Amino acid sequence: MDFATTDLAFAIFHHLLIFALAGVLAFEVGTIKPGMGAADLRRTGGVDAWYGILAGLIIVVGFARANYAAKGWAYYSHNHFFWAKIAAFALVGILSIWPTIALIRWRRTAKTDAAFAPSDTQVRTVRRFLWAEVFFFALIPIFAAAMARGFGEVP
After folding, report:
1. Dist CA 19 CA 151 (whole Å)
2. Structural domain range at position 65
3. Integer Rg of the chain from CA
4. Is 43 part of any domain?
5. Given a cut of 80, is residue 70 above it in pLDDT?
6. Domain count of the fold of the chain
7. d(CA 69, CA 73)
8. Is 86 contained in some domain?
9. What are the tens digits of pLDDT across the range 27-45?
10. Torsion on CA atoms 38, 122, 50, 146, rounded to nearest 10
């Protein structure tokens, strides 16, 4: 495989993973709501597992792309927008911990109590975390677009 094809493959895979992660986040925003039952909790918990898998793949492919693709590590490592993008991604990951822990707890409780539904307060708290994730996730393509156009370069 030539260099241009390798670069294209990394870019395509990276973008598809990002869109898949956005889809998982949108799914969670749409399904975590008051009145969730055991089946909803199982389904949402299963999708949430993909959140972590996709995030890990994004990191691996993203850093491989930064090291082996068109611009190379020297370009990315000296760009403020690259590091802002990484920080936004890390913050989204940190914010995702609370909803994941809540889903795990709720699913465990639902296994022993079929009538269990998280309280409206618990759901509102998780939804605040999810919407914070959405906000910071939206910054990632903004930083990426700026970076790709040479903004943020450190001389």
Report:
1. 24
2. 3-148
3. 18
4. yes
5. no
6. 1
7. 9
8. yes
9. 999 999 999 999 999 999 9
10. 150
Whether residue 1 is predicted with pLDDT greater than 80 in this model: the reply is no
Q: What whole-number percentage of the chain has pLDDT above 70?
A: 100
Please return the burial class of 130, using the count of CB atoms within 10 Å of its CB with bins 0-12, 13-18 and 19+.
Answer: buried
| 6: three-class secondary structure by DSSP | helix
CATH of the domain at 60: 1.20.120
Helical H runs in 32-71? Answer: 38-68
Helix (H), strand (E) at residue 29 = helix 3-31
Residues 69-77 have a mean pLDDT of 87
Residue 79 included in any domain: yes
First-last CA distance in the chain: 33
Phi and psi at residue 25, in whole multiples of 5°?
Answer: -65, -45
Residue 57 has pLDDT above 90, yes or no: yes
Question: Is 66 within the bounds of a domain?
Answer: yes
Per-residue pLDDT for 2 more than 90?
A: no
Q: Which tokens go with 123?
A: 């759901």
Give pLDDT, residue 155. 77
Q: Look-up: residue for tokens 């986040």?
A: 25
